[in-house]
Specification:
Layout: E1 2-13, E2 16-28, E3 33-37, H1 44-51, E4 59-64, E5 67-68, H2 74-84, E6 85-88, H3 100-110, H4 115-128, H5 144-156, E7 162-166, H6 174-189, E8 193-197, H7 201-204, E9 209-214, E10 217-222
Helix pairs in contact: 3-4, 3-5
């Protein structure tokens, strides 16, 4: 599904080059559940954003579903993302002036799903996450856990081919966190490709392969 070849990411400030990722070469197979681990500043979230087509590499090649993403315009990358990728953000990234229902509905609008089907799909997923009674509330009216659940529902509503999760249970209590991880494991068993970033060894074990990053490099890999 994904092939990365010598992916690099750096930022320049006058004469100073700050490296975030260096020489990242890896493959992700369809149906895999991959975990990315590493200390703060290792480049985990940046790598996830590049794979999700929300950021671009400074150098290297990115192939997604046999498409050369590194050659695409921003518009074409965005379209590819909207059709195939669900993203659970650590910091929620909900749209402040949309309520819960509208936030969850947005990815379906991007996919041009017709209104009756959108309504049915959104209502089903809100019920699945016990958010039906919160449907008309806005992000600032929700607890951190409720915002996180809304973000997870939004990521899953299109039944994406690829689900990217940046600390997906970081703002949930331990019981809810376990339920979400069990759900991700079941989705993976049903065929969804999942890549998660986590600091938690217990949650990392849900994946079938772990890549450890350190200072922007792949330090090691374990299965």
């Amino acid at each position: 599904m994904i092939t990365l070849k010598q992916i690099e990411k750096y930022y320049t400030n006058k004469f100073i080059k700050t490296w975030v990722l260096r020489g990242i070469t890896m493959d992700v197979s369809e149906g895999e559940f991959l975990t990315i681990m590493g200390p703060s500043g290792a480049g985990k979230s940046t790598l996830l954003h590049i794979m999700g087509m929300l950021d671009t590499a400074t150098g290297g090649e990115y192939i997604f579903l046999e498409e050369p993403v590194h050659r695409f315009s921003e518009r074409r990358r965005t379209a590819l993302h909207q059709q195939n990728v669900g993203f659970i953000f650590q910091a929620y990234h909900l749209i402040d002036d949309l309520n819960v229902y509208e936030n969850v509905e947005t990815p379906l609008q991007y996919k041009k799903v017709k209104a009756p089907e959108r309504k049915k799909t959104v209502e089903q997923i809100l019920e699945r996450f016990n958010l039906s009674e919160k449907a008309k509330l806005f992000p600032h009216q929700l607890s951190g856990g409720e915002q996180q659940l809304t973000g997870i529902a939004r990521a899953l509503v299109i039944n994406p081919k690829l689900l990217l999760a940046d600390e997906p249970t970081g703002n949930l209590n331990s019981q809810m966190g376990k339920e979400i991880m069990d759900l991700l494991k079941q989705l993976n068993k049903d065929g969804m490709t999942i890549i998660q970033v986590t600091h938690d060894e217990q949650k990392a074990a849900y994946g079938n392969r772990i890549i450890h990053l350190l200072d922007g490099f792949i330090e090691r890999e374990e299965k």
